[in-house]
Amino acid sequence: MHRQSLDTGRPRRGKASRLPFLIAGGLLTLVAAALIATALALPSGSDGVDDPASSASAPPTSGADFVADAETGDTDQWCYVHSAIPVGVVTSPVRAGRYAFKSEIRDGPLIYDTERSEYANGPGSCDKPMFRAGTETWTAVSVYLDAGFPEYSSWSLIAQWKEADGGSPPSQISVENEQLAILGADSLDPRPRFPFGTIERGRWIDFLVHHKWSTDQGIGFVEVIMDGELVLPKTFTRTMDNSNPLFLNVGQYRDLANSGTAVLYIDEVRVGPTRQSVAP
Fold first, then answer.
1. Of the candidates 12, 87, 124, 181, which lies 20 to 30 Å from 78 by C-alpha distance?
2. Residue by residue, what is the 3-state secondary structure of 58-70?
3. What is the pLDDT of residue 39?
């Protein structure tokens, strides 16, 4: 049987006339494959521009042993949060990136029979690094005291290097009578106290604290740089009560004699073996 062809009046194309189309189709297939491969190589949610949220979970490349910059959008960079009032991350104010941690204390609510709102990288079975005898460490932390932060006539702590077995921290940053100071362990008589500045409200304050950890006051030392300026030169003191490792607490812990709602923000926390290792 003769099968009639449907002639539309257009010339029929032979193999030679179809070649350009075949080449063009192959090129389009290659371009599409390249675009798909590029898309798969980009982080989730990325359009080719660095996405702070997706890059935040990457391991720190600065050389720091511990980083808590809130850029995970939660408090998972810390082992524990000790606060009578629910706290967490905020989007303003921030020192860098998109998030910071909030610490808040009010009259009345207590935790462990104390007024505190702290973030801790120990103790216990945490996998966070500890401060150990014989080592030198640098701790960077930025804090922002809210404009309404109260005036305290008794002690209040905003950072503690605390021994894992409890007791009074052998090194801490205190706020009292508008003055900033490094306090030593209360097991020493007299208790070491090294003033280095006054507090300012409504702006970020950058602390960089250099320690040598030792029970020997001729070996241990502390040094403080604030806002890029050396405010406490290297000062020899006992920085440990015993050989037990220490962990870091940042936030607020105050004497019940103080009163008022106190809000503090924390950002850019880093711990490392050198000053360069904790640079943001």
1. 181
2. CCCCCCCCEEECC
3. 36
254 pLDDT more than 90: yes
Spatial CA neighbour of 168 closest among 258, 252, 241: 241
Q: Which pair of structure tokens corresponds to residue 236?
A: 């020899």
Measured in residues, the chain has a length of: 280
pLDDT per position as a tens digit, 110-134: 999 999 999 999 987 787 778 999 9
Domains of the chain: which residue ranges? Answer: 15-49, 54-278
> How is domain 54-278 classified at the CATH fold level?
Jelly Rolls (2.60.120)
User: How many Å apart are CA 84 and CA 101, to the nearest integer?
Assistant: 15
Of 163, 140, 173, which Cα lies nearest the Cα of 254? 173
Q: Per the structure block, which two tokens stand in for 261?
A: 């709602």
254 Cβ neighbours under 8 A, 6+ residues apart: 105, 115, 116, 152, 154, 155, 156, 157, 262
Which one is predicted more confidently, 191 or 47?
191
- Position 168 scores a pLDDT of 86
